Every structure is written in C-alpha cells, then in structure tokens.
Amino acid sequence: MKERIQKVLANAGVDSRRNIEEMILQGRITVNDRVARRMPVMVDPEVDKIEVDGEPVKLKNPKVARRVYILMNKPKGVYCTNVAQGVQKRAIDLLPPDFPFRVYPVARLDAESRGLLLLTNDGELTNQLTHPRYGIAKTYLAEVDGYMEQEDIDKLNKGIWLADKAGHGSASLPGRVKIINRGREASTLEITIREGRNRQVRPMLAELGHKVKRLTRVRMGRLTLQGVGPGKWRFLMPQEVKDLQKEARRAAATVEMHGKPKQGA
C-alpha cells in the first residue's frame, strides 16, 4: 500500500517529516533510481527502492519496529543533522559506534547552542513535537549582551515578528520570559516557548538588538538535564515517554479547540 514518503522515511528513522520534505526539494531522495523533486511522493515500502544521499534506506529492518527515545546534553559545536558536511561532529556521533538504531534529532538546536536534545525514530511523535503551530513547552537560558529593558521583555512575552526565507514572516506566539539577572554589559533570561519553529530564540532576541552569547535548552516538557552532563545521553524511562506523548497530544488538541496553544511550563 502506498504512503507518503515523509511518513515512511520518518518511521524508518531517517529524519523528521519536515526535514524529509526539505530533502525532497533539494533533490537528495531517489525512488526507484529517479530523483523525487516534487510533492506529494507516494511510495510502497514493501516494493519501492528509496535512497537518501545515495544511501539505500532499509525499510524492512526489524529493529526499526522498536521505538527509541534518547535525551542528550548537546555540547557546543555539535550539529543536529544526520548528514555530515566535511568534518562536522553530529549529535548521533556521540552515540556508541555500534548503536543498533537509526535515530534523528527532534526540535533541533543550532551548532552554537547547547543543552537538552531529544533523539528518536518515532515519526508520529516527532511530527507532533515539531509542528509549526504547536508543541510542548521548551525552556532556554539565554545570556545576551547589554541591559535587557522591561520594554523588550514585554515584547518577547507578546510575540516578535520574524521574517522567513521567502521574505515574508509571522509573529511568534507569546512566550514567557523571566529575568535571572541583568547588568549594563550582559543579561541572563529564562525563556519558555511552545512553537515548533527551529532556531527561534536567537532571531527573536536579535530583533530586539541583543546578541546571544550563550544559549542552553534546559527543559522540554517535563524533561530536564538533571544527571546528564555535556556530551552524555540516556534512554528515556517508559513513564517519561508516556508523559511526552501525552503533552504532545494535549498541545495538538488545544490548537484544534482554540486555534493556538496556551503558554506555560
């Protein structure tokens, strides 16, 4: 039976559905030796041969059937991509060389940022966690240059207009900002957002004229970095997975009912 290629490859642990769509537009995916460049792309995982960047995807690997959930404390300089360019060090490179499952990062951090990163091969949960309109709460500690005025805090709490690649843009959803400390030369903020946009915090602060000196994600839903040092990782406990799935479903249901997610921890 044919299915959308985004779902098939996400379930195979290749990447999130959104990132697979980008790969299609970049001409990085072939189906039966033909480059797939336009969507929708429908495939039969039992019959079709699919390659990503020239590498065949094993759709029938029995290990893929087991869903894996990993919490990692990503250090600075590590990339949230499964396709390395040059000598880039990837998040998956911090896993053992013989790690038996193909996983990918969810709710990515840029290379300069650090902190809590989720890796999984659960395509359905990834789609819920990274949907642009909703997501579970993610909390960051942001060290920025300069004194953060209350006026700027109010703007962050109300939402900041962010341009997109097409030259358009939209306002970010309201956040929740707490001042940890601030001085003439630098300020530290705790910022909680729910949106599924990638790499959102730095552009928001840049719009206010504050360069981010250090950005660390410290919480995602109920998950924290407690007991996980930089560069280290652990599997999620079964109850943590259930809590994450429950929060994702609740966020999705809130959007369906009210049109936008509620802010909060």
Can you describe this structure?
There is one protein chain. With 265 residues, this protein is of the alpha+beta class. The chain has 2 domains: 3-62, RNA-binding S4 domain (Structural Genomics Hypothetical 15.5 Kd Protein In mrcA-pckA Intergenic Region, Chain A); 66-265, Pseudouridine synthase (2-Layer Sandwich), CATH 3.30.2350. 23% of the residues lie in helices and 29% in strands. It has 6 helices and 19 strands. Helix 1 (5-11) packs across helix 2 (17-25).
Produce a short descriptive summary:
By secondary structure, the protein is an alpha+beta fold.
- DSSP helix fraction: 10-25%
Rg, Å, rounded? 19 Å
Task: Give the strand tally.
Answer: 19
**Name of the CATH architecture of the largest domain:** 2-Layer Sandwich
Descriptive tags:
Pseudouridine synthase; 29% strand; nine-stranded mixed sheet; four-stranded antiparallel sheet; 2 domains; 19 strands; 6 helices; Structural Genomics Hypothetical 15.5 Kd Protein In mrcA-pckA Intergenic Region, Chain A; 23% helix; single chain; disordered C terminus; alpha+beta; 265 residues
Question: Would you spell out the secondary-structure blueprint of this structure?
Answer:
Elements: E1 3-4, H1 5-11, H2 17-25, E2 29-31, E3 34-35, E4 42-43, E5 50-52, E6 55-56, E7 69-74, E8 78-79, E9 89-90, E10 104-106, E11 114-120, H3 123-130, E12 138-145, H4 150-158, E13 161-163, E14 169-171, E15 176-182, E16 186-193, H5 201-207, E17 212-220, E18 223-224, E19 233-235, H6 238-258
Parallel strand pairs: 8-9, 11-17
Antiparallel strand pairs: 1-4, 2-3, 2-5, 5-6, 7-11, 7-19, 10-11, 12-16, 12-17, 13-14, 15-16, 17-18
